[in-house]
Amino acid sequence: MPTPKKGARLGGSASNQKHIVSNLAMSLFEHGAIKTTEAKAKVLRPYAEKLITKAKKGTVADRRAVAAELPSKEIVAYLFNELAPKFANREGGYTRSIKLENRSGDNAPMTHISLVLEETVSTEATRAARAAASKQAEEAPAEETTEVEAEKQDEK
């Protein structure tokens, strides 16, 4: 086995590492959250976020690129059709990592990595601003109609 040039390999070879990361990403997209070692989570996070970014674009070329990375057609379709629209308002940071206790067998540091499906604070703020503006717009015509009715009463 050749010596890796950058960092430790998760598997024995580069191709084995690609398969491991690909399978982790498929599990993450399928289940929404997985529990894995800290080293695998650190490798998985940028890989999964790049795939989600490609899915957000939604072009045929991006779909083919993701399909080349993930062997399951069902997961690719789920990623493009259902997950990508949920991340439409998010500019990155699609995953969240939470450190857990070490694994009891070999004392390996474990991490819970999950997809962040909640809306960002800024989108919630803009939604609140739009809701307040629409309330004001609804109240303004209601006030005008009451003023018009009051004027009609005064004329009588």
Automatic annotation (TrEMBL):
Q: What's one Pfam family the UniProt record gives for this protein?
A: Ribosomal_L17
- GO process terms (BP): translation
UniProtKB keywords: Ribonucleoprotein, Ribosomal protein
Task: Give the coiled coil ranges.
Answer: none
Give the region (Disordered) as residue ranges: 127-156
**Alphabetized GO MF terms:** structural constituent of ribosome
Q: Name one GO cellular component term.
A: cytosolic large ribosomal subunit
Q: Could you confirm whether the keyword Translocase appears in this record?
A: no
InterPro entries from the entry? Answer: Ribosomal_bL17, Ribosomal_bL17_CS, Ribosomal_bL17_sf
Description of how the protein assembles with itself and partners: Part of the 50S ribosomal subunit. Contacts protein L32.
Name the family the entry cites: Belongs to the bacterial ribosomal protein bL17 family.
The identity of this protein, by name, is: Large ribosomal subunit protein bL17
Origin species: Corynebacterium qintianiae
Higher taxonomy = Bacteria, Bacillati, Actinomycetota, Actinomycetes, Mycobacteriales
Gene expressing this chain: rplQ
